[in-house]
Amino acid sequence: MKRREEMTLWERIYLPEILKGLAITNYHFLRNFAVNVAHLFGAAKSHRASATTKYPEERKRYPDTFRGSHRLTLREDNSVRCTACYLCATACPAQCIFIEAGESSNPHIEKFPVRYEIDTLRCIYCGLCVDACPCDAIRMDTYVHPRIWGFDRRDFVETKEQLIHRSVVLAERGRDGNMQEMLEWYSEQDERVYDPLRPELRTFTEREAPKDYREPKEPVDLPVIDRERANGGR
Ligand code: SF4
Ligand code: SF4
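^ thats the input. predicted complex w/ iron/sulfur cluster below
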């Protein structure tokens, strides 16, 4: 943006720029109006009437740097990488992360999250939790936006299973997988809502945990860290 002293007299008057803006707005209004009327009569089908994206039927591909919904990352043995250290919850300015720690059955890991929840109605998607995590256990590279509607507030609280499921979907279906799954869920719920018989509505959080997630039964033999050596003998 130009500073006032860098502006020409023409720009300082403002009126020409305002008229230019109005001309652009009117051009799009009249063009869309004409194309929509033509569509009513079956003409000009190859011309798009609107400049906006008709979500969810159409959607734009998010950029690589898009900060999307969270996921909990997994180790190679499918166990959750999070060690329930609470650093993300401490760093969170919205105080929307809830963790309940449990003792891990793996002798090399002290704790794991028995419960890990994010209240997305409070989350401001700042990414501080991702920055605070010392073991890369939480990420926001899912290329899916937060849920935009639900049946009750619990639908917006993302559970550990949901957060882990996003990692599985990302690995199996690629970067569009989580968004496709969300759109499928929207259509599934649409059908339920508009079903004239109204079968009992169930919230997302009451559904079963994703089938493809399993806690490892046997503790994995991870190498023991020689802390003295790692700290240079100190
Ligand atoms: S993105 Fe920000 S507000 Fe949301 S859970 Fe992480 S730290 Fe909290
Ligand atoms: S996600 Fe990371 S920072 Fe948060 S509790 Fe787990 S290990 Fe700690």
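The two ends are 54 Å apart (CA to CA).
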